[in-house]
Design a protein that fits this description.
The chain has 77 residues and is α+β, with helices and mostly antiparallel strands. The chain is 21% helix and 17% strand.
């Protein structure tokens, strides 16, 4: 309720996604995907940044896109 975790991670929007590695280091922060849209058809053509970050991390590889601009409603602290 006080936004402690959101402030800790500097979350600015909902959603604002974060992927952490096994040591708790942020390896991705930003939007879930590349298209700021509510149209379900856009899901199939968007780049899913979270999936890409998780796939890279699980394979022991660096995340190609570690940060993007999140989109959504602003967080009201």
């Amino acid at each position: 309720p006080k936004g402690i975790v959101g402030r800790l991670y500097q979350a600015r929007t909902t959603p604002h996604l974060f992927v952490l590695d096994k040591d708790g280091k942020i390896i991705y922060r930003g939007a879930i995907d590349s298209i700021a849209s509510t149209d379900a058809k856009d899901i199939a053509i968007a780049t899913n940044y979270v999936d890409a970050a998780l796939t890279a991390a699980m394979a022991g590889k660096p995340v190609a896109t570690a940060s993007t601009t999140p989109y959504g409603c602003s967080v009201k602290y």
